[in-house]
Amino acid sequence: MTKILENYAEGRWVKSAGGLSPIHSALSGDVVAETGSDGLDFGGMADFARKKGGKALRAMTFHERALMLKALGQAIMERKEELYDLSWDTGATRTDSWIDIEGGAGTLFSYASKGRRELPNDRILLDGDTEVLARDGSFIGQHVYTSMQGLALHINAFNFPVWGMLEKLGPTLLAGVPAIVKPASATAYVAEAAFRIMIESGVLPEGALQFIAGMPGDLFDHLTGQDSVAFTGSANTAAKLQQIPVIAREAVRFTAERDSLNASILAPDAAPGTPEFDLFVKEVAREMTVKAGQKCTAIRRALVPANLIDAVQEALSARLAKAVVGDPRNEGVTMGALVSRAQLADVRAKIAELSAVAPVVYGDPNGADDGKGAFFAPVLMRTDDPWKAEAIHEVEAFGPVATLMPYADLADAAALANHGKGSLAISVFTHDGATARELVLESGAFHGRMAFLNRDSAKTSTGHGSPLPVLVHGGPGRAGGGEEMGGIRGVKHYMQRTALQGDPGLLSKALGEYLPGAPMDEGTVHPFRLRLGELEPGYTLKTGSRTITLDDIEHFADFTGDNFYAHMDEEAAKASPIFGGRVAHGYLILSFAAGLFVDAPPGPVLANYGLEHLRFVKPMKPGDSMKVSLTVRSKSQRSAEMGEVRWAVRVTNQDDELCATYDLLTMNAV
């Protein structure tokens, strides 16, 4: 019995009231599912997202949202075999689906980890340092991020129904924004199954996620300036969506990841017989055959030195000949089918257009066809004059297709790569650092990601075409001009940056973090005697003083082996434009500072695990005395038993001049 996909709207599963469209198996052409969204109240879904989901998510801290993402990833992994079984009909091999399913769960895990490690256990994120706006420090500015109070509409592509959904949801949910997911129809049955797993996990607040199995109806008409749209697909569709009046009228945030004629460059130093030559051939062939070439990051243009084009064509053709196309469930098959008969027809049409300027040198675009499935073997094309073959820089055959072309020199290679007018990814195979630098300078502005691949990274590299959650995914120009993921950068896409102005005390209380210039609370209890819950930003210990002697400096030098001239050679230190005589080691100052503020017996402070933003501002000389101001800057609970305390440390001399400043990090008992 054909499965009828359901929509998830306003907290319940809803079948379409009619107008169902069939989805066909890429392997047999049989109808595997039907999809539709007739009868949905799209305005009601938007209101539900904002009023229910958004409110609930914004009430959670970054850490609580991160734990939610981890639970969602675990739910996907626990039921991954259900998704693998469904994915066969998309034409994907087990390896292809591993990227989609387990790669998608891995993206959630990555965001869960980064959310716990890099974001506070709070709902406000500070951005950058405080700006002093008044000479006496009584008026300051501080940039902050807060969650947008709208919804995120995610419109996804067919090629990665799970990963494509989860790579958008990870940063969105971590930002505290609810999402409405609209998958591509061709593989919507896999996306719906993964979505069900997340809903059934029970970890999502009501309204956090909704799902449209069919068309989005009039949903765009209900968007506001607090909402955002993230689209993955063709340039034509992206342009149509961006021209919807509400996008411009309400200044709706719009991110597009679209068509991309990605290039790969074999550098001049990568001659036959080098590891880089072999890696290039292997990677181009892999990018042509993984997901049957249906990857937004796949290599479409292979650029090689003119004198090597024949050798590359021979080696690449031999490599492609090893691909076994067929039903991915069968043993020995290494490449499955295109997603649909419609996609098969489109790829053939694009090859016909391209072959007018770049003849086919391997494969048969009109090869065997059973009239049911969408199987298609790799096709390699070649042009010997890429500057006159304009179509290869304009037309993308979204399948196992690439064009081989020569370049005259490195400048020519960069210009050809850039002639694609913007891409998601470019790869360069070289073992020469000067080559890499030149290409970064000449091509960096045209590509969202540059992968330099060679013998040194061959065993660990993820290759040309693998977007990673910690790196930005997107590109300029033709690629859409947007960015997704990139670690916490992607979270900020769904937040509003606001410049706050006010007095340090008020802003410190509003943000839950001590800001420079705010009043300090010099309590009577040593702060190391207070538990996490008892410490408040601004709580300060001011220590007594300690005089630094020449014996201290010489003992420290002897003990550590640090005999730098500024500490041990009076004449050389006097000649320095910085020191004017022997000075104390910076790390001696830090050590003495700890001796001044540390309370030794066991207590709530469990460990000192680092310091950040260390600056030595003014040297300290023998005879100078030092004292320390230790202030709770912020705190963030990390587990039921402990949390991080960030302390602002200021070391001053006998004249109250700042000598050193840094943030100390400790782990404290709750």
TrEMBL record:
Residues 458-479 are annotated as: Disordered. CDD domains: ALDH_MaoC-N. Residues 48-496 form the Aldehyde dehydrogenase domain. It comes from the Bacteria. InterPro entries: Ald_DH/histidinol_DH (IPR016161), Ald_DH_C (IPR016163), Ald_DH_N (IPR016162), Aldehyde_DH_dom (IPR015590), HotDog_dom_sf (IPR029069), MaoC-like_dom (IPR002539), PaaN-DH (IPR011966). SUPFAM superfamilies: ALDH-like, Thioesterase/thiol ester dehydrase-isomerase. The keyword Oxidoreductase applies. The keyword Ligase does not apply. Keywords: Oxidoreductase. Residues 537-651 form the MaoC-like domain. This is Phenylacetic acid degradation bifunctional protein PaaZ. It comes from Sphingosinicella xenopeptidilytica.
